[in-house]
Amino acid sequence: MSPESTGQNEHYLRVFWRGFRTWRGNRPFWAGLFTMVGGLPIAYFPYANMHLGNVTLAMSTTAGAGSLIIGILLITLGLTMWFHHIVRVFAGVAAILLALISIPVANIGGFLVGFLFALLGGALSISWAPGEPKPDPVPVGAAGEQSEGTVAGTQEPGPGLHGAAAVPQQPEQYDTTVEVDGGRHRAG
């Protein structure tokens, strides 16, 4: 066994962390987390009681059930962003709408804390897009293929390139040993 081999002698926390980073990189993780964090104060504050010495201050409103529903829906949308990232745009729009509805219904959106977190999570969910691997560049005229405007073995401009000279492109050379994370970013 060579000293360069990995896997057998790795600590289980390192293996878990690597798997978590891979899982997190394939979905809108921070959007789901912010949306769930935004749902907690919206659902909690209408049922909370503050004790100031012998005085109990109840922050409950008449719309306590509405606040609870909005908070639970935001937590559910956050989990949906994590586990069903295909519907991330719907979940993001729904989170933004629920955050806006929480302002008049749930103690000014959980005293603006829940509102801001839910709004940020919804915006992150809408703007997140899965990474796509770069396609391998195919040289023009390779493998006997003819593109529009190309005669076998010659380069002539197509109909939209009047007078433009086509320059054959060389495939991009890169070192495959550097791609440890499969080409994904290492943010976070």
Describe what this molecule looks like in 3D.
With about 190 residues, the chain is mostly helical. The model has no long low-confidence stretch (mean pLDDT about 80). The chain has a two-stranded antiparallel ribbon with strand order 1-2. The longest helix is centred in the middle third of the chain and has 20 residues, at about 65-85. The chain has helices at about 10-25, 30-45, 65-85, 90-105, 105-110, 115-125; strands at about 50, 55-60. The radius of gyration is 27 Å and the shape is elongated. A hairpin with a 2-residue loop joins strand 1 and strand 2. The protein is built from six helices and two strands.
Tell me, rounded to a whole number, the average pLDDT. Answer: 78
Strand content: under 5%
Low-confidence stretches: none
Global shape = elongated
End-to-end separation: 33 Å
Number of strands: 2
The biggest sheet, with number of strands, parallel, antiparallel or mixed sense and barrel status, is:
2 strands, antiparallel
Secondary-structure content class: mainly alpha
List the helices and strands in order: HHEEHHHH
Number of helices: 6
How helical, in percent, are the residues? Answer: 40-55%
Whole-angstrom Rg:
27 Å
Strands in their spatial order, largest beta sheet: 1-2
Compose a concise summary of this entry.
With 188 residues, the protein is mainly alpha-helical. Helix content is 47%, strand content 4%. It has 6 helices and 2 strands, in the order ααββαααα.
